[in-house]
Amino acid sequence: MMHSRAYIIISLCLGGLLLASCGKQYTAEQTVKDFVAENMKEGVETKRLDFGDLGTSRHIKDSLVAQMRKNGFKLFKSNINYGKVPAGEVYYLRMKYLHQGDTLQNTFYLDQELKEVIAFK
What we know:
With 121 residues, this protein is an alpha+beta fold. 40% of the residues lie in helices and 26% in strands. Strands 1, 2, 3, 4 and 5 form a five-stranded antiparallel beta sheet that branches.
């Protein structure tokens, strides 16, 4: 009887963690979709294929963000408004998509609340 309660409690905790991580993934995907819709050049049609798993990185420094913002990407507008670079960890999300028969990939870096894209490559 005591063992079955422990299994139920553990299962509920793991289920809660799974739902929380799925919620973050969904929020990040929505933020990236909105960013792409707003900042893709006019007339460029893409079909999204896939998002990778949401990850975190501590290796994104201001100089790297500045370089990514400067480089941009040929299918995106050049004067993009980005979110503020947070101190510490940032999230990243890879998106693969189809454009004119080619599979392309961009990595988007997001703030800690997953509300704004701070840079992409």
